[in-house]
Structures are given as structure tokens and as C-alpha cells.
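User: Good morning. I'm curious how iron/sulfur cluster would be positioned relative to this chain. Could you predict the structure with it bound?
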Amino acid sequence: MQFLESIFSDGGALSQVIPGFRHRRQQWEMAQAVAAAIDASSLLVAEAGTGTGKTFAYLAPALLSSGKVIVSTGTKTLQDQLFNRDIPAVRQALQAPVTVAMLKGRANYICPYHLARARDEGRFLDRRDVGYLASIERYAASGGSGDKSALGEVPENAAVWPLVTSTRDNCLGQECAHLKECFVMEARKRALAADVVVVNHHLFFADVWLRDEGVAELLPACNSVIFDEAHQLPDTASLFFGETVTSGQLVELCRDSRAEGLVSAGDFAPLQDAAAGLEKAVRDLRLAAGSVPAKLPRAAALQRNGVTAALTALADTLDTLNAALESQAERAPGLENCWRRGQALAQRTQR
Ligand code: SF4
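Assistant: Good morning! Here's the predicted structure, ligand included:
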């Protein structure tokens, strides 16, 4: 810890490299806590205000630790900033002999196979795309990382990008004739060999979920994972592991059940009544939840006045609609489709 203290002190290692660096007690305390957590392989949740210097507070102990570290950011902007600016500065200050790599999702790297195909097929309609393609080809041949963010002259939303990058489905993998110059494979190889790997939350969770993008192989070998911008973790994680039921889905189910009922089960009034009942229950839940902030933890949201009762009533009316749909499902494929959707929504609502 004494060595760490000398790094963060006035006139210490960081101040030699970072202009205007001054000792800040909170930064130093956070660095100590991070170092202790890495040392003990334990969990640490650190929250500190703007201006604390959190990035250096975790980077210094991470670069000094002897194991492999994954640093995950919420945004690609911070990912680029860490890799291009902050980590090189801390590494220089500490004279730490660590290798660092950055890994993004495959859509961020030029795919030489698809680039060659796009050029040969000439599938470009306007001249601007042809110009973009020429820039991408020059960049791909320049010996860089193939990361499209380094090619500022082609906008991120240019129509040409999907044609010159790969997806999980259209990548030829080991069968690919361009494997030797493949930027995705190269980035993964560098990440596997590096001491510190910078990823983003989206890639981290996509990878845990899909086991495809290259982090899954890194995880077993790594000693520490640091999540910066960790407040974004719940949103990113729920994209991959979460379930949602929206009022829009329920209202759509009511609308379709009514329409299908009118066409194929006009003699069965309970179906129309059940759909109207569910629509009213959705409206009641919206009213009850109206004052609940959109991102309140579930337990807290349910404690608000009337939300639990409105949710229970909604689940009951959904069951009633499903019973009506079940009794009529054989009369038309559209009714059967509504019944299946209703069942799936009921299960999710229950959970
Ligand atoms: S291995 Fe996949 S990503 Fe790499 S060049 Fe071939 S098709 Fe493209």
C-alpha cells in the first residue's frame, strides 16, 4: 500500500505524467479499496462523486496486479478513451510492463471477406457509398486494427457498413479464406494474450449470453473484472437476461382478439367482454402506476398504493380472456394465435 500511496501523492508517479495531477484523499482511498479487493478476490462496489478521479483510482491497482484484468465500460466512447488515453498514461506513470488490448463486438470490425464480396459485386447505388468503400479498403490495407471507429471519414450510420462487416450468422469462421487477415480473429487473439482487456458491457453480456464474441474464453482466465459506468449494468443485463410485459402488448392482444372474434366467433359474446375487461385493467394499472418513477426497483414499485391490486386484477382478466380464447381457438388460426400470445403474456405477468 505504501508503494500505491507514493503513486497518488503530490509529486508522485502519476503527477509526473498527468498535467495538473494533485493528491486527492478520496481517490487514494478508492485506490486502496480496489487494490484490497483485487488482492482478496472479493467484491467491491465503489461510488464516488465527479472529480474524484475514479478511472485512475482503479487503473493503477489493476495495472499493478499480477493477474489478468477485464475492464468493461458502459459506452464505446469511454472504452476508446481508456484504451487510447488513460491506460497508456497510467502505464507510463507506473512503468508497468503490461500488455493491453481492446475488444469490441464483431460489427465494429471490417470483415475482409465481406469487403471483397461487396467490391466484386458492386452493390452500391450511390456515388457516396462507392467513395466510402474506397476509404474502407484503403484503411483495411493500412495495417491497423480494422476497428471502424478509427475511420472517421465514413459515418457510423453509413449504409455501407453492414455490407463490409460480419454477423454471427454470416461469418464463415474456420472455413474462411480470409482468416489470416481477419480483424475480428486478430482482436480476439490479442485480447487472449493481453494482461488488461478493455471491453464494453454490451459485449460482456452478449458474450456471456451467446458465447460467441470472444469474451467467454477470456473470463475463465481472468482474475479481476472492473465495471466502470456500472450504473448502466442493470439496463444492459436486462437486454440479455430480462423479460418484459408492456401495456402495448396487452392492448394489442385485446385489439386482435376482438377483431378475430368478430370475424370467426361472432356468436360468442364473452370473448368481446373479456377483451374489454382486460383493456380496462390495463388502463387501471397505468393509472395506479402513473406516479411511480419508470425505473423504481420492483419491490418498491409494488409497494406503491394500488399497484399490486391493479396488477392482480390485470392477471385475473388476462386469465379470463385466455379461457375465452381457448374455448374458441379451434375455430380459426387467428384465434389460436391470440390464445398462444395470451398464455405467454400471462406466464410473464405471473413471474
Ligand atoms: S472469419 Fe468471419 S469475420 Fe473474419 S474475414 Fe472471414 S467471414 Fe469475415
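The mean pLDDT is 89. Residues 110-165 form one domain.
Let me know if you'd like a different ligand tried.
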